[in-house]
Amino acid sequence: MNSMMSIGNLHVRFATPFGSLEAVRSVDLEIPAGASVGIVGESGSGKTVACRAAMGLLSGSNVQRDGTVVFDGKELTAMTREEVRNEFGTGMAMIFQDPMTALNPVRRIGTQLSESLRLRLGMDKKAALARSAELLSLVRIPDPEAMLKKFPYQLSGGMRQRVMIAIAISCNPKLLFADEPTTALDVTVQAQILQLLSELRRDLKMSMVLITHDLGVVANHTDFVAVMYAGEVVEQATTAELFANMKMPYTQALLNSIPNIEMKSGERLQVIEGRLPNPVDRPKGCGFVTRCSYAQQKCHDEHPPLLDAGNGHLYRCWYPLGHTIARKP
Amino acid sequence: MRKKYTIPTYFAFGWLGFAVFLAVFGSFIPIDGYQVIHGDFIDSPPFTSGHWFGVDSNGYDIFSGIINGARLSIFIAVVSVGLGGFIGSLLGVTAAYYRGRYDSVVNTAFNVVLSVPNLVLALALVAVLATNVDINEAVPTWRRLITLVMSLTIVIIPILGRIARAATLAWSGREFIVAARSMGMRDRHIISRHIVPNVLPALIAVGFLAVGVVIIAEASLSLLGVGIPDGASWGGMIARGRNDLEYNPHALYIPIIALAFTVISTNHVGDVLRGKLDRREGRL
Amino acid sequence: MRGSFWVKRLAQLLITVFGVTFGCSLLVQLLPVSPAEILLPVGSPEERDLLTKEIGLDRGPIGYYAKWLGEFVTGDFGDIYYSGGTEEVSGRLATALPRSLLLMIYTQIVALSIAIPLGVWSAYRVGRRADKVISNTLFTMSSIPNFAIALVLVLIVGVRLQWLPTLDYQPFSAGPWEHAKHMIMPVLSLSVGLVASYTRLLRADMIATLREDYITMAASKGLSDRRVLWRHAFRPSSVTLFTSAALNMGGLIGGAIVVETIFATYGVGFEVFAAISGRQYIALQSMVAIICIFYVLFNLTIDVIAGYVDPRTRDRRINA
Fold first, then answer.
1. Total-model pTM
2. Does A269 fall in a domain?
């Protein structure tokens, strides 16, 4: 299988008034061509930052990125800003979490959608608008011609998310990052959007990275999963293997916290007790230790390395699930 | 995290302290008064011995003039902003607290007054209020001073009044105000104990900016010839220096520098206070 | 529903205009001496009575205001009284208004065309050296009163270097360069402070906008920084800027009084000053009314423009 993107030893540090904050630590990730990879974790686990850093979307004087990112055979981390920018839209594209904030409020849908067609694909205005209407019908928006003339504030959340997907796929990207594409939407709309994304991926032969905190979404829409916690990948496997043979107590806790239909949209999951460790001053042991019901003394003292359970299943735990012999009460 | 004061902030506080010191204790400094004529030194440049800032073409010592001008300019600014702020916030706070017809009358009145440019309003008020019954008789200086302060006070009332009204509107919706009301506390108590302490910081920050506005307005009025007569304030000195700027430019730019430093300082202090306030509000 | 917003807005504006003009006419009646006495210092009591009747001061506050308003709306702004005769205010304003409007428009154009690139640039480079230098310099400049800049310009450019004339006004018909020569210094004096406050406003709004998701989204489409800044970030950040520019038109008339006096431009500001120092209170009343009407009209214009710049405000209005 060809590799679409390969992330090697990625570190992201932010300079803050409180000290250096390491948001992403030594992340290795392989995104095979044509595959769908899920990245799962709580808010603040570093999944969004890791993806934006991999794409090269983080900017600012306080951001420091290390590691290598190879996309479609080209090493992004060795390229200039201008060269990386040339990959945006046509190579990689991103869908954002909140469609309320990710569309420019003062520009019409048609302008925003046709902009990349004109600038990145060199279409003229008329062709770009015609293609925009096609794209809108591709994401199942009724009456696309009328939609082109509207402003974002005139649309519902689900419609805006469809528009954003249309913008992201407009230049036929090879790799699509979907950053919690359904978190801000109503439960009923969530399923439709995810279904749409899966179909588009199949029809357009894209690779996709699906960022979410919901293992249920991962189970239905991805081929591979990486679970992130406190800036690290803590478990990684094919989706089937992960659910069949879960190793990390954290992954299990996430699975137990899948939202049910009674929850309001946008509500944060608070099911896992405790909080993420302080990212500026990390404990020396396992980051999950204070919240883990299986924690031992060793977990406090030593940081677990990434271990291989065979057939590509990696995990970062001293006492993985199903390993009861070593575990004391 | 606590933000440390920067060098400009120390400078601003230092200059304001110095100016206020001159204004209050200036008359105790053992030099000649600003109206003493130094005939031998007419048009002396700065750094002449005995006349640090030079002498203007009337023979007045500029240093002495600056000290006296500080007294007048700062007195006028502080009194008008204080008085205008008091009346304005009284109107603004009560209007926002009681709402209803009283509020719309007060708010409309503020808007009406604000729609006349500051300087036009001040000019018109000074002109009307300083009109003498006997047209041929000069208006005495003390009456000019009172007129000027009254006019500038009226200019300030809606500026600070609107800030007070907006802040009160924001605060009186908060739970603790509603709670205080539901406990049956009297309005006067709620206003003075709960609302005023919260509105005051914003008013003080804007008040510093208003001091700058008034100092500039007073100087502009002096330039137009309706300020305090015989050029006693900084604006008056600038107006006098203007007449002779070819031969004696320091008589113009020294009072300009004094005035500009003061306005920069009040604006900066107002800005720092507002920034602090925003951070505090941000945390609530 | 949008209609009701405009009705409300217009009502507000009318109340403001009536309030200001009525306030002015009250001021005229509050004078400790009768205006007739001021305007005709050497006239006989009969002549003064006649003038009082002519102005309408014998009709009481409401009657006087009604008479003044009736004449005002038909374009009769009253007279300026000299010892030798009278001159119509409307005639004076006909020459003064275009000058002031040109002065203000040039000032706004100069201020905005400097402030917009500076504001966008310093927001783009926020926290870096260029931003700090720009912000601190501009803050200092914003505190310097416009008459101080005018006087320093007169001293250096006019008197010392003799590059530009320090007095008088030339219309555009006298040649573009002649016109410009007399406008450069007044425009500069008025625009320096505006540049500072406009840059500041735009910078703050731009910084907030650049943190928005839709800006990252635009960047992720592969657009250049320049395009992201100007096409995506500038417009949603500019509403406060343009609103404040319109509100400043009123303040500019105030600033123009001093600057027009210093440079002898003889615009509306100067006429107001002349009316005050010549005790022409009737003329003053009409002039203040006109300034106020212009101010109110600018406000209305900006409401329309704001709706175009940021369509969200249209929505808000419907809810208002």
1. 0.78
2. yes
The per-residue pLDDT for range C122-165, each reduced to its tens digit, is 998 887 888 888 888 888 888 888 888 888 888 888 777 878 77
Partners of chain A (3+ Cβ pairs below 8 A): C
Q: Tell me, yes or no, whether A218 and A303 share the same domain.
A: yes
CA distances from C2 to A86, A150, A154, C304, C319 (A): 44, 18, 15, 12, 9
Domain that holds residue A81: 3-91+171-315
- Determine what percent of chain C is predicted with pLDDT higher than 70: 93
Does the ipTM exceed 0.95? no
Interface test with C, best of B115, B159, B250 (most C CBs within 10 A): B115
A262 and A306 in a single domain? The answer is: yes
Task: Tell me whether residues A103 and C309 touch, CB distance under 8 A.
Answer: no
Domain boundary among A128, A151, A170: A170
Output DSSP code: residue A209.
E
Domain boundary among A170, A185, A217: A170
Question: Is pLDDT of C44 > 70?
Answer: yes
C221 touches chain A (CB under 8 A): yes
Give chain B's contact residues with C (Cβ, < 8 Å): 8, 108-109, 111-113, 115-120, 123-125, 127-128, 131-133, 135, 212, 216, 219-220, 223-226, 238, 242, 245-246, 249, 252-253, 256, 259-260, 263-264, 267-268, 271
C-alpha to C-alpha distance for C209 and C132, rounded to whole angstroms: 19
Domain count, chain A: 2
Asked if residue A30 lies in contact with residue A223, where contact means CB atoms within 8 angstroms, the answer is no
Q: Are residues A311 and A203 part of one domain? A: yes
- Do C189 and C111 meet the contact criterion of CB atoms below 8 Å apart? no
Residues with pLDDT less than 70, chain A: 1, 258-273, 323-329
- If asked whether residues A181 and A255 sit together in one domain, one would say yes
| Mean pLDDT over each residue of chain A, to the nearest integer | 84
pLDDT at position C313 is 61
d(CA A28, CA A231): 11
Query: What is the C-alpha to C-alpha distance for residues A138 and A120, in angstroms, rounded to an integer?
Result: 20
On whether both A179 and A273 belong to a single domain, the answer is: yes
Q: Are residues A153 and A241 in the same domain?
A: no
Check CB contact under 8 Å for C273 and B109. no
Q: Which residues are A40's β-sheet partners?
A: A212, A227
Inspect the interface and report whether the beta carbons of C38 and B131 lie closer than 8 Å: yes
**Within a domain: A232:** yes
> How many H-runs (helices) and E-runs (strands) does chain B carry?
10, 0
Confirm whether A245 is domain-assigned. Answer: yes
Amino acid at C132: K
Domain assignment present for A320: no
Q: Are both A193 and A142 inside the same structural domain?
A: no
The enclosing H or E element of C10 equals helix C2-30
Q: At residue C256, what are phi and psi to the nearest 5 degrees? A: -65, -25
pLDDT band of residue B160 (cuts 50, 70, 90) is: very high
Write the single-letter amino acid at B245. L
Question: A14 or B279: which carries more pLDDT confidence?
Answer: A14
Question: Could you tell me the two tokens for B85?
Answer: 């702020």
Whether residues A28 and A122 fall in one domain: no
The domain spans of chain B are 69-277
Q: Which residue of C has its CA nearest to B134?
A: C33
Residue of C nearest to A169 (CA): C221
Which residues, at least 6 apart from C85, have a Cβ–Cβ distance to it below 8 Å? none
pLDDT at res. C320:
33
Tokens 């105790």, located at residue: B28
3-state helix, strand, coil in chain A (%, to 5): 35, 25, 40
Query: Does C140 reach chain B within 8 Å, measured CB to CB?
Result: yes
Minimal CA separation from C128 to chain A, in Å: 8
Instruction: Count A/C contacts: CB-CB distance under 8 Å.
Output: 84
Superfamily of domain B69-277: MetI-like (1.10.3720.10)
